[in-house]
Specification:
By secondary structure, the chain is mostly helical. The chain is about 70% helix and about 0% strand. The termini are far apart.
Length: about 60
């Protein structure tokens, strides 16, 4: 009986952990996409990346 209870407890823990990991990966992927999209706008690019200030040619939108 104890072995069966331990297996159920372990299975529940695994399912909860897996859901948390999937949610975390999804959140990080969404943040990555938003950060990449934000780089298309000069104001956001200045906040996210300081490298452009050190480059010789500034980014110009057409």
């Amino acid at each position: 009986m104890d072995k069966r209870n331990a297996e159920r407890r372990d299975a529940k823990w695994f399912v909860r952990s897996e859901k948390l990991i999937v949610r975390g990966i999804s959140l990080l992927a969404a943040v990555l996409v938003l950060a990449q999209l934000a780089l298309h706008f000069p104001a956001a690019r200045q906040l996210l990346s300081r490298t452009e200030h050190w480059e010789g040619t500034r980014y110009v939108t057409e």
